[in-house]
Amino acid sequence: MSPSLGLPDAYRAAGSASFVDFLAALHPERLPMPSSGQGHGATVAPHGTTIVALRTASGAVMAGDRRATMGNIIAQNDIEKVFAADEFSVIGIAGTAGLAVELVRLFQVELEHYEKIEGVSLSLEGKANRLATMLRGNLGLAMQGLAVVPLLAGYDEARDVGRIFSYDVTGGRYEEHDFYAVGSGSSFARGSLKKLYTRGASTDDAVRSALEALYDAADDDSATGGPDMARGIYPVVATVDAEGVRVLTDDELAPVVRAMVEARMTRPDGASGAGNGGAS
Predict the structure, then answer these.
(1) pLDDT, tens digit (0-9, with 9 covering 90-100), for 214-240
(2) Which CATH architecture has domain 42-266?
(3) Contact 167, 149 (CB under 8 A)
(4) pTM, whole model, 2 decimals?
């Protein structure tokens, strides 16, 4: 420690604009995903599922159900799995809930720190790459069953389009076209979106398609929760476009979810096409 400044050397060392690198040098034990950490297995920690993302004519939509499970137990009915990463990107989480939430918080700080140090926002491509690097730090825990699988969507200001990025537990990054889903109900959600998705859809139509896909996933996957009408618990839905990120309120979602559930009373398998109000 310098007697003149009273600060550890990490504060004065020249390096990258990465907050994660700075924290690793100063207090590595405070990182949520230490490379040498020991996992305790997948059954002792709550897990979150399912996240869907769709490209729209103006950007992207992301939605996640609210259930977290711990083995065969429902650990939480109102967990939030979709967050604004910064002004023009959203991140959804599946996998070990505690680690995933900490990853999101660290990612948010990382993007804010970069902007303050460099004076400009990180590009969407850069955000996707940085998230992949952070995920690699969790590989040791992922191999022990404590995996984190995020989904990133954002508005690319340079290209004027919405983009979606998926990941695997090793930090592999893949750009998805049109739509994607992660989590235990992802295969059912993607199957639903194959029927519902329309390229260049409006934001409103994409929101309805995302809600339908989560409902279909909940139909076949016990770890995915459907809307709880009695308690007023609805999926978390966020949109992102040139105006930025917006998380829809429960008041905005309630009539859309109610109409979807009422339509399922006469058509339990749901709508067969986006924007058709549930008609066959």
Answers:
(1) 999 999 999 999 999 999 999 999 999
(2) 4-Layer Sandwich (3.60)
(3) yes
(4) 0.82
Q: What is the pLDDT of residues 193-220, one digit of tens each?
A: 999 999 999 999 999 999 999 999 999 9
Location of structure tokens 């997948």: 42
User: Please, what is the end-to-end C-alpha distance for the chain in angstroms?
Assistant: 70
Active-site pick, 49, 56, 96, 239: 49
User: SS3 letters for the chain?
Assistant: CCCCCCCCHHHCCCCCCCHHHHHHHHCHHHCCCCCCCCCCCCCCCCEECCEEEEECCCCEEEEECCCEEECCEEEECCCCCEEEEECCEEEEEEEEHHHHHHHHHHHHHHHHHHHHHHCCCCCHHHHHHHHHHHHHCCHHHHCCCCCEEEEEEEEECCCCEEEEEEECCCCCEEEECCEEEECCCHHHHHHHHHHHCCCCCCHHHHHHHHHHHHHHHHHHCCCCCCCECCCCECCEEEEEECCEEEECCHHHHHHHHHHHHHHHHHCCCCCCCCCCCCCC
Query: Is 49 an annotated catalytic residue?
Result: yes
Long-range contacts formed by 110-114: CB under 8 A, 24+ apart: 110/18, 110/19, 110/20, 110/134, 111/85, 111/86, 112/86, 113/17, 113/18, 113/19, 113/22, 114/17, 114/18, 114/19
